[in-house]
Amino acid sequence: MDKTNNYLPKGLGSQSAIRFLVIVAALVIIIAGMNLAQSVIVLSLVSVFLALIGTPPVIWLEQKRMPSFIAVIIVISVMVIILLLIGVLVGASLKSFSSALPFYQTRIQEQITAFEALLTSKGITGSDKVLVKYFNPESVMNLTAIFLTGLSSALSNVVLILLTVTFILLEVSSFPVKLRAVLGNPEAVFPLFTKFVIDIRRYLVITTLINLAAGILIGIWLSILGVKYPVLWGFLVFLLHFIPNIGSVIAAIPAVLLTLIQLGIGSAIFVAAGYLLVGFIVGNIIQPKLMGQRLGLSTLVVFLSMIFWGSLLGLIGAILCIPLTMTLKFAFESREDTQWIAVLLGPEKSAVEKSSVSWNLPLIKKRKRKVYEKNKN
């Protein structure tokens, strides 16, 4: 017997350990491949996102006895009009903001210099290095412009995206039929899958409407205060509110900085208060009331998923991190040997329920066996 085996961890050479290592290696390869094919995956995700939003009106029009092709054409036409309006309004604001960016950078530098002089007059030295290292508003404005420009390039394939959405909507009613044909059971039903699709679609539709309302409110508030580019900042709120936990905070930073440069500290405080109020109402009142606990994800998992998908797929990954994580959770729930991962991804309440079910499973099986034997006799 080889004595070196005594120094190996118990079970290291077992089949389950080898299987675990193979799965980890496969995940690494898949993640690397997704990173390389980021542009294609982002295009597909945006198409599926728009298709899920467009499915309810298509189904509603079909229920009104309208042909599927006509219903899809109407929905796609509405999407085209909305995207054109967004492109015209936001594009004009973005172009004006980009051209004025050097002026704002100069103003920021002047204010930092004046603030440094004030601190020096009070006997506080070394403040210039601290401001440059930890607080650099100029870089924030640069990142905002780069972010919005990158978003425009990500949506540059809008024609291809809309064509993909059109074909998805045309095929959406035939998906169950094709799935039954693959399984060889024309009477098969898919309650869990149907519930999952409904939850994803419900999340996307409700979140889109809520974020749209938040963006409109912020745009109106900034217009009242006289802040420049209210349409641009409202669109940024709509977009970044898809990112959980920190999206609303990130959306507020450039608008508050611009207000500070343009109108002074008093108006900047009012702008920040408006963002806080809208964020509180949306995040703590409206969204929980409309969506309840349907996400089935813990707060930590939501935050980590934002980091993971954002680093893997960029902005679109951060925006769609919750639907993507919900999809993974559903896939893990579908297999008995991976249900423990789904429990870890879920909230504490779900874990307690799973634990109680698992604890009482022998008793449940025993009762079912007695009922079966009673009915048999």
Mean pLDDT over the residues: 74
- Main sheet overview: none
Compute the number of structural domains. 3
- List how many beta strands DSSP finds: 0
Low-confidence stretches: 1-12, 355-365
User: What sequence of helices (H) and strands (E) makes up the elements?
Assistant: HHHHHHHHHHHHHHHHH
- Give the overall silhouette: globular
Structural class: mainly alpha
What level of helicity do the residues show? over 70%
Topology diagram in text:
Elements: H1 15-36, H2 38-63, H3 68-121, H4 127-134, H5 137-154, H6 158-171, H7 175-183, H8 191-225, H9 230-240, H10 247-262, H11 265-291, H12 299-313, H13 315-319, H14 321-333, H15 339-345, H16 348-359, H17 361-376
Helix pairs in contact: 2-3, 2-6, 2-8, 3-5, 3-6, 3-9, 8-9, 8-11, 8-14, 9-10, 10-11, 12-14, 14-15
